[in-house]
Amino acid sequence: MSSFSLTFLTLLSFFCFCVNARLTLDFYKDTCPQFAQIIRDTVTAKQIASPTTAPATIRLFLHDCLIPNGCDASILLSSTAFNKAERDADINLSLPGDAFDLVVRAKTALELACPNTVSCADILSAATRDLLTMLGGPFYPVFLGRRDGRFSSAASVPNHLPTPSMPMSQITEIFTRRGFSVEEFVALSGAHTVGFSHCSEFVTNLSNSSSSYNPRFSEALSKACADYRTNPTLSVFNDIMTPNKFDNVYFQNLPKGLGVLKSDHGLYSDPVTRPFVEGFAKDQARFFRVFASAMQKLSLLNVQTGRKGEIRRRCDQIN
């Protein structure tokens, strides 16, 4: 190999190292040493006041990171007269307000302590991890140094986020296209061990003769959702056994017909995903290990660093 080629490869390796090194575990050590404590304090206060905050924030994080532009907090941007933003795409209209409010609270506190320093994307990533651990979920290191995206479009959302009515093969493909294994996808689906689903998302499946719902469970869901047409806010817990604890009981429920959404049942009925459901149901440590790794992987998708993106002064609008 020529000296030129060696020099070029050395420079290329150095460049790649520098780019990746911009995301570090202690990114705010000097510029905002209060970062971790402010996130913890904000998360704790909000979760105690509104217990739905944790599942809401996990969902918001997923909906931000899974679309092509990745974890850039573009989901937080509001629409303008000239642009319909991601948060106003049909699938995102049901994102709970508690998650948005949490980020606003954390951003306000951080702007007072460290003006123009911490990105909204980092706030969402760190807050999601802290909320997971509060509910008993696994800890994983969150790399920091993301910049916020400057653009958000509702048109970029369709076919990049899973819906309960999608065939399992299509949902699986959404995740594998983004670099996740089937096992990682099933583990991420385990986030349904907390949170709730609106009746409108599943009630029409209950009367299907080929339904895999437990009959008594189906009857109970029908009663709980009887007035969903007049009250669209009606919802039920995704995991009826331990709804406020992050554990593997969600996977234990699926073979018993105790899944709420069509996609929940699909995880167990599909021969590709079923072995992982069974494995996680038997071994919570394995579920936690794969889930933590997949969440960290998700948090690093297409992040913007350095001169790319910006540090928004307000999370709902570009500077």
UniProtKB/TrEMBL annotation:
This is Peroxidase. Keywords: Calcium, Disulfide bond, Glycoprotein, Heme, Hydrogen peroxide, Iron, Metal-binding, Oxidoreductase, Peroxidase, Secreted, Signal. Substrate binds at residue 162. It comes from Vigna angularis var. angularis. Its EC number is 1.11.1.7. Pfam families: peroxidase. The record marks 59 as: Transition state stabilizer. Residues 1-21 form the signal peptide. Residues 22-319 form the Plant heme peroxidase family profile domain. Ca(2+) 1 binds at residues 64, 70, 72, 74, 86. It comes from the Eukaryota. InterPro entries: Haem_peroxidase (IPR002016), Haem_peroxidase_sf (IPR010255), Peroxidase_pln (IPR000823), Secretory_peroxidase (IPR033905). The lineage of its organism: Eukaryota, Viridiplantae, Streptophyta, Embryophyta, Tracheophyta. Belongs to the peroxidase family. Classical plant (class III) peroxidase subfamily. One of its GO terms (biological process) is hydrogen peroxide catabolic process. Disulfide bonds join 32-114, 65-71, 120-315, 199-225. Removal of H(2)O(2), oxidation of toxic reductants, biosynthesis and degradation of lignin, suberization, auxin catabolism, response to environmental stresses such as wounding, pathogen attack and oxidative stress. These functions might be dependent on each isozyme/isoform in each plant tissue.
